[in-house]
UniProtKB/TrEMBL annotation:
Organism: Paraclostridium bifermentans (Clostridium bifermentans)
Biological processes per GO annotation: transmembrane transport
Segments forming a coiled coil: none
CDD domains: TM_PBP2 (cd06261)
Primary localisation category: membrane
Keywords on record: Cell membrane, Membrane, Transmembrane, Transmembrane helix, Transport
Protein name: ABC transporter permease subunit
PROSITE patterns: ABC_TM1 (PS50928)
Domain ABC transmembrane type-1: 56-240
């Protein structure tokens, strides 16, 4: 079943490449500067591979701490607020007020108040990833079926045992949904942060060559970043399916 879908995806990508080649090399309806032909893109991609991997490492040094801190704090605070109805009611209006604020709007302010551009970039990624994980964790905890909680009381599960045997497993589908959303936001904010607040990384690579109108390398950077994102999301799906092995929808994939 999966192979059928992968075949269709590959066919769409190949069709897009041929359409691009048709409009850039046959009828030439697109600006050759903004839309360089495929051979130029391939050559630029190959020549830029060492630099792209160097930029990838720089991007990971921003993404990993920002996302990691958001994951730990979002799940921890989400569980605390989820199991405590009083705290939930107190903080929910504050969360609803702060959650919709785009983290990218805070970039200039964070650059001004943080001691380094690195910390300001990590902070942007952290803020963008934190809210989806926090909200998903709170919702997952609050929506746990009462029968699971009653079962925990019957076998006298308390404290950390209750957390790891009842709360987190029952809320895992919601939490992982929030983590996936946070990953998507993380990649978007990573590119934005690198364009404004760093002198390295994939976002910086793309912005740097765009300033010089070298769009063959710009497209190469976009393709490389897209491949990296696909790899990360595939790994995430594998991990999620392993964690949620008991769910019907995951087993049918």
């Amino acid at each position: 079943m999966k192979n059928k879908y992968y075949f269709a995806t590959t066919a769409i990508v190949i069709a897009f490449v041929f359409i691009y080649m048709f409009f850039t090399q046959v009828v030439i309806l697109l600006d050759p500067i903004l839309f360089p032909n495929i051979s130029l893109i391939i050559n630029a991609f190959i020549e830029s591979i060492p630099k792209l991997f160097e930029c990838l490492w720089s991007s990971c040094k921003l993404l990993i701490p920002g996302f990691g801190l958001a994951l730990i704090s979002g799940v921890t605070i989400g569980v605390i607020l989820g199991v405590n109805p009083a705290l939930n009611k107190v903080f929910k209006p504050i969360i609803f007020a702060l959650n919709p604020i785009p983290p990218s709007m805070l970039t200039p302010y964070l650059i001004a108040i943080m001691p380094t551009f690195y910390l300001s970039s990590v902070a942007v990624i952290f803020i963008g990833c934190f809210w989806p994980i926090l909200g998903a964790t709170m919702s997952g905890i609050v929506m746990i079926d009462q029968k699971f909680l009653d079962y925990g009381k019957v076998i006298e599960l308390r404290g950390m045992k209750k957390l790891f045997h009842i709360l987190l497993p029952a809320a895992a589908p919601s939490i992982l949904s929030g983590v996936k959303t946070a990953l998507n936001f993380g990649f978007i904010l990573l590119a934005i942060a690198e364009m404004f607040a760093t002198n390295s990384g994939l976002g910086y690579f793309i912005q740097y060559y765009a300033d010089f109108s070298d769009y063959a390398r710009v497209i190469s950077g976009i393709i490389f970043m897209g491949l990296f994102i696909i790899l990360i999301m595939v790994i995430f799906e594998k991990v999620r399916n392993r964690i949620l092995f008991w769910t019907l929808n995951e087993n049918n994939k």
